[in-house]
């Protein structure tokens, strides 16, 4: 997710950082700038899509949505990465319509980076860095970027 200076960008980056210990939830950047949309820049409700397969993400998203009325995340349960989720996400990224957030295992993150399907959220996620063990944070850092 490339976030704007809009306060909701920071909240969404924190949501992203909150699930780093299990797997990576990464922002997809299919060659376009995802700094915000009309709702995000005009002060309206920011809407984001999140694709993943881990049990409980639907409940986490529902809780996030209840506590962040200006940011609404739509969760789409996909096949696990090796069973088609990664292919679906990379195909969507190449087509320019990837979700803003997606679940990617640590071991697959470099492949998404090589495909240009990630967005740098370092400046938004860095504040959450102290909440994670060093080895965990290193798993989601490529070339000094989160």
UniProtKB/TrEMBL annotation:
Keyword set, alphabetical order: Signal
Keyword Signal: yes
Leader peptide range in chain numbering: 1-22
Pfam families referenced in this protein's UniProt entry, alphabetically: SBP_bac_1
Highest taxon listed in the record's lineage: Bacteria
Official protein name in the record: Sugar ABC transporter substrate-binding protein
Annotated source species: Kitasatospora cathayae
